[in-house]
Amino acid sequence: MESVFKVVQKHKELSLSERVAQQISDLIKERNIGVGDKLPNEFELAESLNVGRGTIREAVKILVARNCLEIRRGKGTFVTEKIGQVTDPLGFEYIADKVKLTEELYEVRFQIEPWIASLAAKRIREDEKEELRRRCAAVETCIAEGVDHYDADNAFHQYIAQCTHNSVLPEIIPIITYSVRLFTRFTDPKILKDTVRTHRAIADAICSNDAEWAEKSMKEHISSNLDCINQLKEREAASKAEVR
Question: What distance in Å separates the CA atoms of residue 107 and residue 178, rounded to the nearest whole number?
Fold first, then answer.
């Protein structure tokens, strides 16, 4: 009986463990192995690929690092929920000047997200509008209760991207909205009030299928946040100057 895995022959410029990792990735795609599904055990993988179990362990480690697989102790190896998605793919966590990073991310968002909002307004389905409003309200609830609104905010913006029905855009949003995580350190009431107001305008515009209004509202949202950051920076700088 032919092995369920192909003999590892391609990608010879890669190490053996990297080639085996590629073969396991191919298996996941070819067999339509879904989220949460368990892979064959280490012994079966080693026997099928004619490699040692140590190589299999190294290959699995590579795929774990890529967030394709997760190891559950005592249970086995499983496909992750968000396969291939890395939490911080561009290494923002290691950039020292977080305020400057926030400003630069908002510059990128200003170029991309208004277009995404416009596209969402054109393509959103009727059955998606209620969910968009629900996610908008979830951000407001977090702000009203004084809790971190990062996750709710990210979910709102990602759902807007989802409503474009472009498979690439929802994957980009968590990267460019990393600025929201940094921005939550600024808790000025004006920022929170503007977030609520502009989020409502964005949701209303998209649900009204008004692409021009959606684009304009998203631009106002991002510009408003960036203006608030600049104002707070000036206040902090003035405060430090006074102390000196």
Answer: 13
